[in-house]
Amino acid sequence: MAKRKGGKKKKKSETVFLVCEESGDYNYTLRRKAGGEKLRLKKYCPRLRRHTLHVEKKK
């Protein structure tokens, strides 16, 4: 009998960074599927010590 190789294929995911728009710091990393719209989230910026808008950026 021949052995089967395989199983489910893994979906490609990429690491993206969330960058603070005001300070320019790379504060957060995410793993998400490729494609789709860029994320724009309000997250905490430790340097400014307040919530600011963060945008997705690939390194």
Description:
By secondary structure, this protein is mainly β. The protein has one domain (13-57): Rubrerythrin, domain 2, CATH 2.20.28. Helices cover 0% and strands 51% of the residues. It contains no helices and four strands. The protein has strands spanning 13-20, 26-33, 40-45, 50-57. It has a four-stranded antiparallel sheet, with no helix packed on it. A hairpin with a 4-residue loop joins strand 3 and strand 4. The protein is rod-shaped, with a radius of gyration of 18 Å. 3% of the residues are buried. The mean pLDDT is 89.
In short:
This protein is mostly beta strands and 59 residues long. Helices cover 0% and strands 51% of the residues.
Relevant terms:
mainly beta; Rubrerythrin, domain 2; four-stranded antiparallel beta sheet; 51% strand
Write the layout of secondary structure elements.
Elements: E1 13-20, E2 26-33, E3 40-45, E4 50-57
Main sheet attributes: strand count, strand direction, barrel closure: 4 strands, antiparallel
What's the helix count?
0
Overall average residue pLDDT: 89
SSE series: EEEE
Strands in their spatial order, largest beta sheet: 2-1-4-3
Q: Give the overall silhouette.
A: rod-shaped
What Rg, in angstroms, do the CA atoms define?
Answer: 18 Å
Low-confidence spans: none
Any idea how many domains?
1
Question: For this structure, what is the CATH class?
Answer: Mainly Beta
| Range of strand content | over 45%
Helical proportion? Answer: under 10%
Amino- and carboxy-terminal Cα gap: 47 Å
Query: What is the CATH superfamily?
Result: Ribosomal protein L33
Total count of strands? 4
